[in-house]
Design goal:
β21 and β22 form a beta hairpin. The N and C termini lie far apart (97 Å). By secondary structure, the protein is mainly beta. It is flat, with a radius of gyration of 42 Å. It has four domains: 318 residues, Methylamine Dehydrogenase, Chain H; 273 residues, YVTN repeat-like/Quinoprotein amine dehydrogenase (Methylamine Dehydrogenase, Chain H, 7 Propeller), CATH 2.130.10.10; 97 residues, Immunoglobulin-like, CATH 2.60.40; 109 residues, LytTr DNA-binding domain (OB fold (Dihydrolipoamide Acetyltransferase, E2P), Beta Barrel). Strands 59-65-64-61-62 form a five-stranded mixed beta sheet, with no helix packed on it. Strands 70-69-68-72-71 form a five-stranded antiparallel beta sheet. It contains seven helices and 75 strands. Keywords: Membrane, Transmembrane, Transmembrane helix.
């Protein structure tokens, strides 16, 4: 594909003229249903993070990121952040002209200095073409690349603007074909060919030098004059080729004999063209925007008329991206939605018997859409610029127009009085309007007037009753009696904004209770808990008995009703590209939905929900895995050597519709509950020993969880904590004890062995886990290692704890503190007021005292026998 650019002579040496460069660059896109000046575009420039506002091309890599080629490097966009790349990040040149996507997902890039590089995504990095020097030696400096294809055998094919033939370099760097300059005498005809080896690679061959291995050939004299802008595309649906040349385009039969020649009604210079899909093509113009045309050559749409467009690209969510030479890129979240701006916002919509659309505006103007046009004619204008109410009487084929506060004569009991108009009902029974507190209607040629105690917002007739929506709720007028229905159902105690009736059912919008469906024997609510965008509903349109369109203060819903009073709800809001919030009126004309809102007039096809509800790829992927603050390079199982290892998983989903906001869920065990988050990083450092399976999913636009990523995680015990090591130690200890008792007389005496044996056991236990007790001393909570305690004694309601060189005082009874120790077996009570730690005994003085930390501790007669048994058992004394 090709791309348009312009260069400043101060920045570019030896480049060809501006006209030549303009003529060769082309675009590719894949989107439909564009409207001329009415698309909703968001503009991104260098201020927002692009490398430059002079953008030549757009593509999307195999991870979903968008890439923009500019005159100052590449820019990557993930829906939130623009990331810039230049020579410092590995590019061969800062002026990137074109992206050429190959079937294997590799993106090849051409630069102004003829150096070619390629990449698949940022992770794999930018790689220079091995034979750039061969290209440089094979072509002059003024040759500008306008097409690039890599064949299955890794040969590189290049064509150049205004040049014949092509450059072919095989996988070993050998040049098999070179381009040449054309002769002036050859400009009266155009011969285009394609090789069987690369059938979609088109080159000019006016010299007829290649007669073999030709897959396709066009030889026509319709194309006169020299131009480097030539684009040949396959129209596979109609089995023909399409040629775009200068300001003209041609549809040519497979044998090249039948040529349809067309010239668009536009004087701007065509600088690019490409295929959209099987039904549409487009052409870009210098300062003329781009046109969309069908496969018959009929122009369907024209947009961004003042821009020089260099690329039109549809992303994976259906959004449209358009790059320009001077204004950066433009983004349209939902191209199927058209927006019309006027001096004031529309308040009401209606249509006539021929599906002509009428629009009433807040400033008192009434317009009608001109058939088969995007223009609107003015029918009425209020002198006082009061809001206008409209209602079309299909029986009388007459459009009623009433101004807010206009005087209206109401008749009752043959007495006339003046009231003010506050609306016209959609019901043809009330096309002459209603006032703030009265409704009037004809009954058997008699005009009746009914006074209502609250502000009226809408009225409608169903069977023999009249439903009246007011500020405080719903009323019913029947058999000459006005009755409030607020007590009949709590659904009707909020403001009623709109009432429509059809097939013995009334559909009522409320300001707080959502949408109410009232049938003969059934009343039920459809609200935000069921999936409606909001409980503040402003308008309802009954398309048929089963399809309702509901306007809210957060967008529009389509509700599909079923016979058992169940329903489905489709949603169109700002997330899907609808920028209006408070919907004031809805009308459907010839398969298109029209919305009146405070943000303007909107139109879209009813089929939009087929696109909105389709599941787009979210490109969920792992960005990186960090173990102990270092990247984990392996792509398979994540292995941690101990539970103390830190583990963080970073991931991303490329989304442009919602500003990069996505919902995720994850779990690390099959049976555990899902964890929900909007973060793009998860800390899994808490994992203990064992094997886990990390699973991650992202939610799509249909609220479905898709694109699961699975990763095995293994947390390995350190060898000294593994079961085999512990078992080995226990076996060795047992063996040691056995051998000792077997040969104790020859090796140790009993006393020495007992001391050593006891010390070894304590040492092993302390290495495995340091035991401690929490105490509160002097207002501070202290973690005290029990192996450091020599003895403790009671002092009334306190306990004094002694370590070597330090004393702690806690408020507690001595026996209570003893029971809190995790290793009570190490301590011995020698007196009613003293506990000592056995392995801290330094000296024993007869039966009266033991010495610990050079302190003499008395031994009570009560505990003497216990002390003797303990000392004999532990020390052989």
């Amino acid at each position: 594909m090709e791309i348009l650019t312009s260069f400043n002579s101060k920045r570019v040496k030896n480049c060809c003229c501006l006209y030549q460069i303009f003529c060769f660059f082309l675009l590719f896109a894949n989107f439909t249903n564009l409207n001329s000046q009415n698309q909703l575009f968001k503009n991104f420039t260098a201020i927002d993070g692009l490398s430059s506002s002079e953008v030549y091309d757009i593509t999307q890599d195999n991870m979903g990121y968008l890439w923009f080629a500019t005159d100052r490097g590449l820019t990557r966009y993930d829906g939130k952040i623009f990331k810039r790349y230049s020579i410092s990040e590995g590019l061969l040149d800062n002026t990137i002209l074109n992206f050429y996507e190959q079937q294997d997902g590799t993106i090849w890039c051409s630069t102004l200095n003829h150096k070619i590089f390629y990449f698949k995504n940022e992770k794999e990095g930018f790689k220079a073409y091995s034979y750039n020097q061969v290209i440089e030696e094979s072509i002059p400096n003024n040759f500008v690349i306008n097409n690039l294809v890599v064949s299955e055998d890794k040969s590189l094919f290049l064509t150049f603007n205004n040049k014949y033939l092509f450059l072919e370099i095989d996988a070993n760097g050998k040049v098999l074909s070179k381009p040449i300059k054309g002769n002036k005498t050859d400009k009266q005809k155009l011969i285009l060919k394609a090789l069987k080896k690369v059938p979609n690679f088109i080159f000019r061959d006016n010299l007829n030098l290649h007669n073999s291995n030709i897959d396709f050939s066009i030889n026509t004299t319709y194309l006169l004059g020299a131009s480097s802008f030539i684009r040949v595309l396959n129209d596979t649906k109609n089995k023909r080729r399409c040629v775009f040349y200068k300001n003209r385009y041609f549809f040519i039969s497979p044998d090249g004999t039948h040529v349809t020649n067309k010239v668009p009604n536009d004087s701007s210079l065509a600088i690019m063209a490409d295929k959209l899909d099987e039904d549409y093509f487009w052409i870009g113009y210098q300062y003329g925007g781009a046109i969309i045309l069908d496969t018959q050559g009929n122009i369907k749409y024209h947009f961004l008329k003042d821009e020089s467009v260099t690329k039109v690209f549809k992303d994976h969510e259906g959004g449209l991206w358009i790059s320009t030479l001077n204004s950066g890129v433009f983004y349209n979240k939902e191209p199927m939605i058209n927006h019309y701006e006027f001096d004031s916002f529309p308040t009401e919509l209606d249509k006539d018997n021929d599906n002509g659309l009428f629009i009433a505006f807040h400033n008192g103007i009434v317009r009608k859409k001109i058939e088969k046009s995007e223009e609107f004619s003015k029918l009425y204008s209020s002198n006082k610029k009061h809001s206008v109410f409209i209602g079309f009487d299909k029986t009388e084929n007459y459009l009623y127009i009433e101004e807010l506060y206009s005087k209206k004569e109401l008749v009752k009991d043959n007495k006339a009085y003046i009231d003010q108009v506050f609306g016209i009902s959609d019901d043809e029974f009330f096309t002459n309007g209603f006032s703030k507190s009265h409704i009037s209607f004809l009954e058997d040629t008699i005009k009746k007037v009914v006074k209502v105690p609250e502000r009226i917002y809408d009225i409608s007739k169903i069977n023999d009753a009249i439903l009246i929506g007011t500020q405080g709720g719903l009323y019913e007028y029947k058999n000459d009696s006005l009755k409030s229905l607020k007590d009949n159902s709590s659904f009707f105690n909020n403001r009623i904004s709109d009432i429509d009736t059809d097939d013995n059912q009334a559909v009522i919008t409320t300001m707080g209770n959502g949408l109410i469906v009232k049938k003969k024997d059934t009343i039920f609510s459809i609200n935000s808990r069921n999936g409606l965008l909001s409980d503040i509903c402003t308008e309802v349109y009954i398309e048929d008995s089963y399809t309702l369109w509901v306007g809210t203060n957060r967008g529009v819903n389509r509700v599909t009703l079923y016979k058992n009073n169940t329903f489905d709800i489709d949603t169109l809001s700002h997330k899907e590209g609808l920028i209006c919030s408070e919907i004031l009126d809805i009308e459907i004309v010839n398969g298109f939905v029209w919305l009146a809102s405070r943000e303007g007039l909107f139109r879209f096809s009813k089929s939009i929900f087929e696109k909105v509800n389709s599941s787009y790829k979210k490109w969920l992927h792992l960005d990186k895995v960090i173990v102990n603050n270092k990247p984990f390079a392996k792509n398979d199982e994540i292995v941690l050597q101990s539970p103390e290892s830190s583990l963080k998983v970073y991931y991303n989903t490329v989304s442009f519709k919602n500003g990069g906001y996505n919902e995720y869920r994850y779990k690390i065990k099959d049976k555990e509950e899902w964890n929900y988050t909007t973060n793009t990083a998860i800390d899994l450092s808490h994992l203990t020993y064992g094997s886990y399976q990390f699973r991650l999913q992202v939610k799509n636009e249909n609220q479905e969880w898709i694109e699961t990523i699975e990763k095995n995680i293994l947390v390995v015990l350190p060898f000294w904590k593994s079961s085999w090591f512990i078992s080995l130690i226990l076996i060795l200890i047992g063996l040691f004890i056995f051998l000792f008792f077997r040969f104790r007389v020859l090796v140790f005496n009993k006393k020495h062995f007992t001391i050593i044996y006891h010390g070894i056991l304590n040492k092993l236990r302390r290495n495995q886990e340091e035991l401690s007790v929490s105490i509160k001393s002097n207002g501070n909570t202290i973690r005290l290692i029990t192996s450091e305690i020599g003895y403790f004694k009671s002092s009334r309601n306190y306990v004094e704890i002694f370590t070597e060189g330090k004393k702690y005082l806690i408020r507690k009874k001595i026996d209570e503190f003893f029971q809190e120790l995790p290793d009570t077996i190490e301590f011995l009570k020698v007196h009613r007021s003293y506990y000592i730690r056995i392995d801290k005994i330094k000296e024993i003085k007869g039966n009266k005292e033991v010495v610990i930390f050079d302190v003499q501790i008395p031994i009570s007669k009560t505990y003497l026998e216990n002390i003797k048994r303990t000392l004999k058992h532990n020390f052989g004394i």
